[in-house]
């Protein structure tokens, strides 16, 4: 940028100051070609959401545990979530954890179910989000309530039973008050760009599984349609991350049998789907407070701005 012609040193200095201010404004917009890798720039920070890469900073963060067995479907509110995690629970079944930006909440979310140790460790990379759940194992519940990593929300007047559904699949939540208790969104390691990254191969669908749960993601030309256990759902995603994790027994046992604990600290492999392409990636999270990075050939692999489903596949 040029300050234009001038015969005055004072004007030159003023022009330099304006140029410096503009440079800082561009930096604040978080355009970073190196971080985005070969596909182009990524968007995050004050001008865009840390959770979705879409315009406008994300607000406070609420995570809600969602039932995902056949008797609990259909759920509500998942297409308003910024991120949806699929996590293994007892019997090899899956449970969902939907992460919402408080500025983009559905009227109701549910059916709400109980929390697990995996949730506590996973949410430690956020900035003390609220976690809404229906209950927890007797020794885990006080740990959640006194945790410095999240704010536990359970048993408040915002939970209600929905008529026409059978317990325990009928507890729902009006999420606004719970979301107000969450900490502000922070950088959790995700990078975004609308430009399609180099590499990868065309793929119209991909599958992920747990011992007693299956997920299929089908590219429609604009997004991924989510199917669970062979049944199409109303849920969609702009990105899918199938993150391969180690699963061991939780420290918080159950009388009903083995309670899985999915390890999200460490590193491993992942499959990332975006724009009808699949990328073989690596994930890395060195500690619980650290964000999770996804890389391809040593460079951050950006996601398409929008909603992301992350399946923690054992």
UniProtKB/TrEMBL annotation:
Pfam families: DUF3048, DUF3048_C. Residues 1-27 form the signal peptide. It comes from the Bacteria. Residues 51-179, 214-310 form the DUF3048 domain. Keywords: Signal. The keyword Ribosomal protein does not apply. InterPro entries: DUF3048_C (IPR035328), DUF3048_N (IPR021416), YerB-like_sf (IPR023158). This is DUF3048 domain-containing protein.
